[in-house]
Design brief:
17 helices; binds 2-acetamido-2-deoxy-beta-D-glucopyranose; Alkaline Phosphatase, subunit A; globular; alpha/beta; four-stranded antiparallel sheet; ten-stranded mixed sheet
Length: 598
């Protein structure tokens, strides 16, 4: 009977081949997953067959830009705005910090709720929790099951933070607003079970928005760093580096979770009309704080920097009726909000930076995005902007985080897996075949795997002396279409382009909402709240802003830049500017001198 139903549904899909109104949306976010750590990007070491199946049968977005840290990536996703609009740029919000996305912002799930969706967040929140009005169930999610801060221990769900030699520690795990104290098990599995139960109990006459925001493969947020599910440690015995083996176990747990969610959707006959998205919030922390032994190779840099390894991540969109593709356009994390609202048949009514890419992805229309503000961090003083194939990076970037990391992690001590066997036997491959009659074309898969593997094009040099690192006097410029690893600096050879892109950055900088330097509120200490990280500030309390001067632009004005401005045809510039930053254009014209701090 079930088989017959599947056959019937599959015929419907094959014949109609279109996306029904108000499709279900399952949005899966990984935390600190390295670019090079999914097998469809070419890894022969870490196997991610379920994610790969979505990539091969769906749309791979190789030029997907997010942010260098979790909070800005997530705030952009939820608001459709660059984080500088909401003061959430730079380092993630600390658990003891009184900060969050302002309740005056309207978030993606609020729009979807209005369109009749049942909306659920499972896993990480990360955009503010000091006050009740910042919490997910007050921001458009019908239900929430997970953690509110940046990371927790995978078994105790506790979060630890040290301020002035005082260690703040306590439980960060909630069902809506109730602390969960009786749950046991590995976090990835607990979240997955919750997602599967939610799908099983979902009223299928209502469209579903399920946001599964994993902790994996972020380092544990307690006292222990790498905590894979027990059974997935041995599964990665072939990997020589011991810490890397544990990281691979975390990634394998994440991939297995994707398979279980796909299986649950198929069981409820929801799969044929569900959009499944898989992305990472930012690249791996290959070095420094929260190091997880992930690898962004062949991309440069690590989490928290403006380099591609931090801000360009794995991104896949799948729906049974969207043709398989490697999508050629530029996509920014802020684009999800308008794109998914369009997929759900709605409209937004706010001024945002995100662009609706739905028709470009599903109907082969030309990609509408031509540039993107990649990062702007007024605490570390750095920024990156992409225009066409070019990327500019300015300001203060740590040389110690600007290298290539992870070649020493790639070694095997035992033979690895046979990729084809792993791929064809995973849950997602079996479900696709059984319920949607989607048989994987292995030649197509091999071609997509080869074409989304940047290694062929990259000469990873470990010779740091040759790599440009920006200073206050000079930034770096790259043509990513031929140099995705950011090794060949074009700053000196392309002065016109540099001046133009710097000017774009000056305009954005002049409009930023400063990021307050994170400080701990002593009242946040979980020791004061039964060792639970509860909200501790009344909604009505004024947000305290440390007195701070407006941050100055992190690049000195050069003679060349001034000359460029003088030569500029202001009328033409105003016209072109109006297209990109309508609201800032007039202010810019009046304040052009004000942009420079002489
Ligand atoms: C979460 O709490 C709600 C009530 O707010 C309850 O109905 C539900 O069963 C709880 N879920 C779990 C998984 O405990
Ligand atoms: C499912 O949702 C529909 C539409 O809102 C509603 O009419 C129906 O009563 C719901 N079914 C259950 C079992 O709640
Ligand atoms: C957008 O729509 C919502 C709900 O319909 C409304 O509350 C809000 O005021 C609107 N915002 C603007 C700027 O029109
Ligand atoms: C792999 O991809 C590269 C870049 O697209 C191409 O030059 C090369 O021929 C491909 N190799 C195979 C075996 O398809
Ligand atoms: C890679 O870069 C190194 C150092 O710049 C250079 O010597 C070598 O020839 C390059 N290899 C290729 C294949 O381009
Ligand atoms: C840390 O010390 C500073 C300076 O004494 C103080 O202002 C701040 O409140 C302290 N923070 C905590 C969390 O105790
Ligand atoms: C909160 O801010 C408002 C407006 O700036 C001010 O009038 C009010 O006095 C402040 N309240 C407190 C308790 O500081």
């Amino acid at each position: 009977m079930r088989q017959l139903f599947y056959i019937f549904m599959s015929l419907v899909v094959l014949i109609k081949c279109e996306i029904y109104s108000r499709p279900n949306i399952v949005f899966i976010v990984a935390d600190d997953l390295g670019w090079g750590d999914v097998s469809f990007h070419g890894s022969d070491q870490i196997m991610t067959p379920n994610i790969d199946m979505l990539a091969y049968q769906g749309v791979i977005i190789p030029q997907y830009y997010t942010h260098a840290y979790g909070t800005p990536a997530r705030s952009a996703l939820l608001t459709g705005k660059y984080p500088i609009r909401t003061g959430t740029q730079g380092i993630s919000i600390a658990s003891a910090e009184d900060h969050g996305v302002s309740p005056t912002e309207r978030l993606l799930p609020e729009y979807l709720q209005e369109l009749g969706y049942s909306t659920h967040l499972i896993g990480k929140w990360g955009v503010g929790k000091s006050r009740e009005h910042y919490l997910p169930t007050n921001r458009g999610f019908d239900t929430f099951y997970g953690f509110l801060g940046s990371s927790v221990d995978y078994f105790t769900y506790n979060h630890v933070e040290t301020w002035n030699d005082t260690v703040f520690y306590g439980l960060d795990f909630f069902n809506n607003s109730d602390p969960i104290e009786d749950q046991r098990g590995h976090l990835t599995e607990v979240l997955t079970e919750q997602a599967v139960n939610l799908i099983r109990n979902h009223n299928t006459s209502v469209p579903l928005y399920l946001h599964i925001s994993h902790a994996a493969p972020h380092a544990g947020g307690g006292y222990v760093n790498l905590q894979p599910p027990e059974d997935l440690i041995a599964a990665n015995d072939h990997i020589a580096h011991t810490a890397r083996r544990y990281y691979a176990g975390l990634v394998a747990g994440l991939d297995r979770s994707v398979g279980h969610v796909i299986l649950a959707l198929a069981e409820r006959q929801l799969l044929h009309n569900t959009i499944v998205i898989f992305v990472s919030d930012n690249g791996a922390a290959s070095t420094g704080l929260n190091r997880n032994f992930g690898s962004n190779l062949p991309l440069r840099g690590t989490k928290g920097t403006p380099w591609e390894g931090a801000v360009r991540t794995t991104a896949v969109v799948w729906h049974a009726s969207i043709p398989s593709n490697i999508w050629p356009g530029l996509f920014h994390v802020a684009d999800w909000m308008p794109t998914l609202i369009a997929a759900a048949g709605g409209n937004y009514n706010d001024t945002i930076d995100g662009i609706n890419q739905w028709n470009a992805i599903t109907k082969d229309e030309p990609p509408p995005r031509h540039d993107a503000l990649i990062t702007m961090d007024d605490l570390t003083d750095s920024a990156a902007f992409r225009q066409g194939d070019y990327k500019i990076i300015i300001g203060n970037v740590e040389p110690d985080k600007s290298q290539f990391y992870g070649t020493e992690l790639q070694k095997l001590r035992l033979p690895g897996y046979s990729y084809e066997n792993v791929l064809l036997s995973c849950d997602t491959a079996l479900v696709f075949k059984e319920t949607l009659f989607l048989n994987l074309d292995l030649n197509m898969a091999a071609m997509k795997r080869n074409n989304s593997n940047l290694y062929w094009n990259i000469n990873v040099t470990t010779n740091s002396e040759n790599l440009c690192v920006p200073t206050k006097a000079k930034g770096c410029l790259y043509d990513l279409s031929v140099d995705p690893a950011e090794t060949n600096d074009l700053w000196s050879s392309h002065p016109e382009l540099v001046h133009h892109m710097v000017l774009r950055l000056r305009v954005y900088w002049s409009t930023l909402n400063p990021r307050q330097r994170p400080t701990a509120d002593p009242r946040a200490n979980p020791a004061l709240h039964d060792f639970i990280w509860l909200p501790w500030v009344d909604n009505g309390e004024n947000v305290s802003k440390a007195l701070q001067e407006f941050p100055s632009f992190p690049l000195q004005v050069s003679v060349g830049e001034l000359q460029y401005l003088v030569d500029f045809n202001l009328k033409a510039f105003k016209d072109s500017l109006t297209n990109y930053v309508q609201s800032s254009a007039d202010a810019f014209m009046q304040n052009i001198v004000g942009l420079f701090s002489f």
